[in-house]
Design goal:
The structure is a single chain. The protein is mainly alpha-helical. The protein has a domain of 30 residues. 24% of the residues lie in helices and 2% in strands. The protein contains 3 helices and 2 strands, in the order H-H-E-E-H. The two termini are 63 Å apart.
């Protein structure tokens, strides 16, 4: 790089004029105007075109008048089947006997217990019947996370815990 300073750009009249225009106003007016004009052009009826077949005359086929059709009856079906036997269809319906219980009790959910490798003395951390270990201080929590190679979540709660109105 050279140490020669570059001359400042000379403002032109056009650049000054473009700074005066509020482009948000131009966009607010111009976009709906262009949308309206596009809608007018698109929905405009097409100009009539000259058809190559305009000189041709369409002649309907020769049909007899509607009242002159012969009155032919509708033909009978080929075969009529009349069933004389009643066919029973077996249906399986479950029936509850009085000696059986109607509702089966859901299996009992076992109590949650941490594995032996996760248990710690009560004075060191508490779980409050969850899978999360709550440590009393930050240094103990950081040490435990480092030794067990797990992430550490710091939860900072402030308030006056003796008065429930403040928490």
């Amino acid at each position: 790089m050279s140490s020669v300073p570059k001359p400042a750009p000379v403002p032109t009249a056009r650049a000054g004029f473009l700074k005066i225009i509020d482009w948000r106003t131009v966009a607010a007016i111009g976009l709906p105007l262009w949308a309206f004009l596009t809608g007018v052009v698109v929905t405009r009826p097409a100009a009539p075109t000259v058809s190559l077949f305009a000189s041709l005359e369409l002649v309907p086929p020769d049909l007899p008048p509607p009242g002159s059709l012969p009155d032919e009856p509708i033909p009978m079906p080929r075969e009529i089947v009349i069933r004389t036997q009643i066919v029973a269809v077996p249906i399986a319906v479950p029936v509850v006997t009085p000696g059986e219980p109607v509702v089966v009790a859901a299996p009992a959910v076992p109590d949650f217990k941490l594995p032996a490798s996760e248990l710690m003395p009560a004075e060191r951390c508490q779980t409050f019947n969850t899978k999360v270990k709550f440590h009393a201080g930050m240094p103990e929590a950081a040490e435990e996370a480092k030794t067990s190679k797990k992430l550490l979540l710091v939860l900072h709660i402030s308030g006056h815990f003796d008065d429930p109105g403040f928490t």
